[in-house]
Queue: 4 jobs
Job 1
Amino acid sequence: MSTNLTALLQQLLQNTSDLKVLQQLMTPDATYVSLTFDNPELKKIEPWAGTHKGPQALADVFAAIQRFWITLDFKVTDIIEQGNRVAMFGSFTYKSNVTGKEITSPFGMLARFEGEKVAHVQFLEDSYGTAGSFKTGGATRFHSDPTGKEVEV
């Protein structure tokens, strides 16, 4: 391919609120998977979580994220471009607009292209940590270790 797909993905990430740019960079039916395919519990905390279609949906996701958090830092540490795919890894620091809590999370992103347009993006982060930046009280019990006891967090 003659186009630098990494540069196209970076352009998309720098223009998440500009629908005209997103429409130029994405296929009309592009899929964006944020954190999970479909998790109703997580969606109650982070309403953008799940699978979304089209450039408008991506703009809506990032608008919601900006309402919930201030981005203090976003670092890309590694990029791998192979064929029609770009993988990006790094970390970000968000501060909750409600609680004031800060969270630093690793992230991984995979973008697939059709020609010179983004057709699919999957974004993964420490969802337990990011959701925790909104925690205001209470405890939750977990029992994960088959030989251990329940823990309360």
Note: The chain has five helices and eight strands.
Job 2
Amino acid sequence: MASVIVLDAMGSDRAPKPEIEGAIQAARQFGTRVVLVGYDEAIHAELDRHPGAAGLPIEVVHASEVITMKDKAVQAVRAKRDSSMRVGLRLVREGVASGFISAGNTGAAMATAKMVLGAIPGVDRPALAAFFPTTAGGVASMLDVGANVDCKPHNLAQFAVMGEIYFRTMFGTHRPRVGLLSIGEEETKGNELTRDSFHLLKQLPLNFIGNVEGRDLYNGNVDVIVADGFVGNVALKTSEGVANLVRATLKETLKATITRQVGYLLSRSAFADFKKRLDHTEYGGAPLLGVKGVCFITHGSSNANAIKNAIRVAAEFAEHRINDTIEKELATLAAQLT
């Protein structure tokens, strides 16, 4: 059976336009069945602007409430029982859909997923994973990037196992290199959390290469970077800011003189490739690893391309049955460490 992906149609900053455009692109390009959840009148009005969508595997499920970016996550999750997030995640829990995607309030999406889906046995805290392009031409994954601000060493150990399984399965890498983000390569460097986590990670049956530094996010020397959610989120947001600075500065510089404009025209394909490698919309959002179901969270500023790719990656996650592997390997690991 083909994957069915539920999309929170009311999540992004410009909802439901990018959600619907992305859903149409994914249904047309990948054949994925997409369920749009939210205000049905608003969704149908936007769908009517795309006559070609009539024959695609897209359906609409009404939700009478929306959790906004201004809502406090925990309060909104409890108060808005018919929100597009909660309705969508219930469809996953009930087995109607294979996965859920939202570009809405990140805190609320995580809290709702934990409440509605629950955690995989052996996982104390689910973690968000993000991807970074590397100079080696591939990508590196980092987790956690914001789900857990305060962590214990055993949390980071679980992140390492989940991240390694996800990277290995999605990219076909036999033994992904796992590193612990710190301020120096020596195992004595870092704070109490990283020092204690280092010794724990050394005991795991992973290809643990030790501590890595911030620059290793991009040099291709590591595949999976483990961090607590506070440090991971700062690294992620800093990276996004630098990428935007590079794109904007390059664009401004190339427009400065006629000679440079001619050079740009002659090298347009190279610059297009450069822009694509720095474009976060190509990576399809961040999976919330460790919940009983597939849940992806994307930027509030997501465009149609980001939504399309989030649908693609969520479907691949479900088809590879990554959660089954995480549960099985964590159980084996727990038995070995006891």
Note: The longest helix spans residues 229-254.
Job 3
Amino acid sequence: MGLLNLIVTLIVVGVLLWLVNAYIPMDAKIKQILKVVVVIAVVLRLLGAFGLLGHMTRISVPKV
């Protein structure tokens, strides 16, 4: 993943999280949980992108 790709991804995730928090009415506790989950996912993705987490290819996501 290139640096530009990484920056664009972070911007898109940030804008999407802001839009969800600003325009979708939810309980404050649910919004906080959503924020924590997104931050954890972004941190894990960044660690994987910089090679600090190990091989992210071993994690498989089931297809829907």
Note: The chain has a mean pLDDT of 84.
Job 4
Amino acid sequence: MVRGLRGATTVDEDTVEQVTTRSQELMRRIMERNNLSEDDIVSALFTATADVTSIFPATAIREIGFGAVPLLCAAEIAVPGAMALCIRVLLHVHTTKSKDEIHHVYLHGAQGLRDDLPD
């Protein structure tokens, strides 16, 4: 079965180092929390707010593997008052876990984005 798995993080500043570090941290934490391997990932869609332009989050993820996984980056919709300096990801994963067993991961300033989800 294929399920969607969400996550997000923020950066303190838009630098290659910060976007790379935080994107990789997010992906690693999602993989660990859900006991996933690269082979479980069908595809990943990353979005970033308009103030994150130093590097594609997908480029950062390629640096830690995921060579066979289709990765795509897109711009987040610029909604007035929305969280700044934010990177989001939607993973499509092969899993036998129920939707209640999936752990979505929100780090740093993004922790409050989806506080309605179980951890």
Note: The chain has two helices and five strands.
